[in-house]
Hints:
The protein is mostly helical. 79% of the residues lie in helices and 0% in strands. α1 (10-40) packs across α8 and α9 packs across α11.
Amino acid sequence: MSPSASRLSLGTKLGYAVGNVGLQMLIAAMSFLLMIFYTDVALVPPAVAGAALLVGKVWDTINDPLFGWMTDRTRSRHGRHRVYLIYGAIPLGLAAAAVWMVPPGLSPVAAFLWIAITYTVFDTMMTLVQLPYQAMAANMTQDYDERTSLTAFASMGALLGFFAGSVLMPVLVRAAPDARTGYALAGAVFGLVAGMAVAVVAWRVREPAAGAPPATEAHTPPLWASVRATLGTTLHNRPFLLLMSAATLVRLGLTLVQASLAYFVIYQLQGDKGDLPRFMGTLLGVVGLSLFVWKVVVDRWEKNRAYILGLVLCAAGLLALYWVKPGDQHLMTAILVVVGIGMGAHWIVPFAMVPDTIDHGHMQAGERQTGMYYGLYGLMDKLARTLATVLVAGMLDVTGYVPNVAQSADALQGITLMTGVLPGLCLVLAIPLLMAYPITRSRHAEIRGHTGMR
């Protein structure tokens, strides 16, 4: 493939970005607000909510690699990955809405079952849609820098969705007669928008031909043997393992911030719930503006170096949250600006790096296994998100958190550690892994030469 053939039209990039608006809207709403919805609105004990969310992640250890393997072997008239977007858009929207509809007055056991079932169904549909959506990007172009451009567009879509999920949901909730009704209506709206966004990608974006059909049934190995073989090949890809491990640590840290920020603003900063959209808007606005800068940095630096710089800035800001006292609104805003600048690197760089590691795996194995890579990457990402949510729930439970009242010194200390110190340490631990990441611009050119991607 020539470099010119690797270029994507503006319409294709914009159409692809629309999908991220819907998907990241759901992710942001659940990262920032789901736990505080369960504890302060649905009145579910934190330990019960955290344990119920773990059920979905146990299932993820099976479904992410399995669905990744499935997409690598899917052949249909709608394409290898696009078919999942076509048939998954509506079920995803319905499942997302159900998560925010916890009936009032449930016993702890009933609440556990309700949360476990609704979240597991949603998580399954999210995997079936998001994994093929992400895998499409790796096959749309093999150009090192064009992937960064496509990722920049997708990141802008993700940012718009993240803004809607974290900033607009609290606004919609406050406009409703009561919080429970507000969350239910907002969840329904978000589910509808997410389904429509996925449908736009299915309508607007076409993926390259899938290549030769699968082997005949007589030569096809048993299902789990085939899954294990593909999984083993993926796990022998050192650049991918380094990137996935670093990105998992970063995701753990950033989700701790997202899950704890509402508690930090309301109880430690002693703001009100109206302050939350403003702070989230500041953070995401800075992330959005920084994307243009990070695109220029990545075009001139190696991708891992740009990522490291972003993590250093983000970690410095998060660690500074430890010194924020009640009423320090201006200091809080300044810290969020620094965090947002650093966080912008995470929004663009790792997603431009994953396809490069897939090219490396193609060179090693002689076969392109896009779905399994995104299945594993998505699995670790979701495990990190859930672990962060469970850690926050456990911290609230252990430190004696009581919803909707002034908190004890122990509870405030726990909230502060979960919002700033522990996330900052997670980001710092990711830096040595990125320093060891071996794929540079020149190395990727060699990989393309070996695999015939010219």
